[in-house]
Amino acid sequence: MKIAKALAFRIVSHTSKAAFAAAPVALAATSLLACADENDPKTWVKRLDDPAQRTPAIKRLNEMFDSAMSGANNERGDAKVKAVVDDSVEALTKTYTAGNLDEKTRKDLIKLLAEMSDPRAAPAFAKAFQDFEPGKNDEDVKFAAQGTTRLAQSGKLTDQALIDALWDVFAKFQPSKSKSINLVKDLQTAVKTVKHSSYAPKAVALLGAPVTDPKSPEQGMDQIQFWQLTAVQLIGDTKFTPGVKPLVTVLMTPSKKDLTFPVRLALHKMPKEAEPALIQALKGEGDFAKLAEAYPEKAYVPLVAEPLAYISRPAGRDAIIDVLGKAESFQNRTILATYLTYFPTDAKLVKAYTDAYAKVPADAAISLMGGSNGHAILAGASANFFDGSLTDWILKEVAAAKGEAADAMPASGLPAAIKLMSPEQAKAVEAAVNKIPGQAIEKEMFKSANTVLDKCKKDAACYMGVLDTPVPSAPPAAKMGHVKAVYMAAMNPAGDTKAKLLERVEKIKDGSVRLALLEAIDHLSPQGDAAAGDKLEKLVETETAAGNKAGTDEMYRVALKLRSRVP
C-alpha cells in the first residue's frame, strides 16, 4: 500500500512538473494573440501569407485605407493614408502578382491597389494588362488603367514594364467585343495620359491600318474611335513630327473623315512642321497627288485648307489665296474665302475675299456649310476682318440681293455691319435695318450696339467700361452692346487694349461676348503672342475643371494660333 501511494505521488509530481513547465509556453502564445493589434495594417499584412486568412485580410486593409481617406478628405498625401499604404502596398502587390486568387478577391485587390495610386503597385497593374483575356479579367484591366492614369497624372509613372504593358493591351483591345464602356474609356484615357515617347512611332503605325468599310460599327468603334483617334491625339500631344505626313494622309482619306477634327488639332500643335506638308496636299502634289485625284471637283481642298488657316502663317495664307484664285467650284471658293478671315487682316487679303465673293453665284447653296447661301456666309464672316471699310460693301450687297439671297443676306450681313459700323456709318446701317418688315432681331441688335457706339465713339477706354458692366441675359439681342464694345475697342486700340481684353476673357462668362473677345485678341496679334496663348490655355484648363465650357473650344484654338503665328 505504501509502495502504491509512493508511486502515485511520483506520477502526480511528474505530471505537475510537466504542466508547470508547459504553462509559460501556452501563456506566451495566448499573450501574442491577445497583443496583436487588429487596427494595425501590419497585423493584416502578415495574414496575407495564409490562404485561409487572405481574403479577410484584403478586406480589412481595404477598410483601413477607405477610413484613412475619408478622414483625410480623400487626400492621398495625408500622413495617415500614407501610413496605411506604406505598410501594405508592397505585400498587396506581391499577393496580386502571385495569383491563385478567386475572382472576387482578385478584383477587390486590384481595385484597392488602383485607389492607393502608389508606384510600388506597378507590377500588379502590368500583370493585369499582360493577363488580359476578353470577358475574363476585364474589371482588372479597368482598375489597372485607372491606377496607371493616377500614377501618370501625379508624375510617379516610371516603370517601363508597366508603360509597355499598357500599350500592348491597348493595341490588342477591341471595344466592339467589350461589354464595358467604362473599360474602353479608362483604357483609352490611360494611354492618352501616359503619352510616353515610345508610343508615338507605334501610333503612326496604327494610322496605316485601312478602314475598308466606314459604315461597319465594328470598324468605326475599333479602328476610328479607339485605335486611330487615340493615335492621332498621341502624335499631336507628343509633337511627334514624323507623324505629320501620316496625319495629312488621314485627313485626305475619305473613309477616315470622322478623324478630321482631331487631325486638324494635332497638326496645329506642330505648326511649322505641318505647314509645308499641308501646302503640298492643298496643291495636290508630291506624296498626296494620288489621294487628291480620288476626289471629284477637288473636294479635298477645304479639308486641307482648314488646318492651314488655323495655323495662320504667311506661307499657308499665300497658298490658300493662290488656290482660291484657281478654284473651279463655288463651294470651294466660298469656303476658301472664309478661311482668309483666320489670318491677320491686310488689304491684299480683303481684296481676295471680295473678289471671291463676286465669283460666287448669288443663289449658290454651300452643302458643306448646311446648305446656306454663299453670299450670306461671306457677308457675315467679313466681320472677322475687323475692317470698318467693309461696312459700306456689306450694305451695298444686302441691298442688291435678290431671290434666295435677298432672304438670307439681311440676317447674316446686317449683324456684321452692326459690329463694324463707325459713328459715321451708323445712320446708313440703321436705314438698312429698318427696311426689314415688322419685328426683327436685327433692329434690336442695332439699338443695343448704337447706344454703346453713341456713348463711346472711338474711345477704347470707354468701351472697356462697357465690358465691365453685366452682360444682359435676355433678350439675346441685348448682348450686342457688349459685342460692339469689343469690336470698337479692337478697331480703335490703345497700347494696352489687348491686355485688357485678355483680362476680360476670364471675367466674362457669356459665350457670345467671350467669342468676340477671343476674335479681337486674335485680330490684335498679327505676329502671334505666345504669352497670351499660354494664359488662354491655362484658362481653358481652369474653366473646364469648373464645368464652364462656354467658348473654351475656340479659346484653345486661338491659344494655339497665337503660338503658331510667332515667327
Description:
With 567 residues, the protein is mainly α. The protein contains 30 helices and two strands. A two-stranded antiparallel ribbon has the order 1-2. The longest helix is centred in the N-terminal third of the chain and has 34 residues. It is elongated.
Which labels suit this protein?
single chain, 567 residues, mainly alpha, two-stranded antiparallel sheet, 30 helices, 2 strands, disordered N terminus
Please tally the helical runs, counting DSSP H or I stretches of 4 or more residues: 30
The general outline is: elongated
Residue share in helices? 55-70%
Strand order of the largest sheet: 1-2
Strand content: under 5%
How many beta strands in the DSSP annotation?
2
Give the topology:
Blueprint: H1 2-35, H2 41-46, H3 51-71, H4 79-98, H5 103-116, H6 122-130, H7 138-153, H8 160-172, H9 181-194, H10 199-207, H11 217-237, H12 244-251, H13 260-268, H14 271-282, H15 289-293, H16 301-311, H17 314-326, H18 330-339, H19 347-359, E1 365-366, E2 372-373, H20 374-381, H21 390-400, H22 404-420, H23 426-434, H24 441-456, H25 460-467, H26 480-491, H27 497-507, H28 511-523, H29 530-546, H30 552-564
How would you summarize what this structure contains?
By secondary structure, the protein is mainly α.
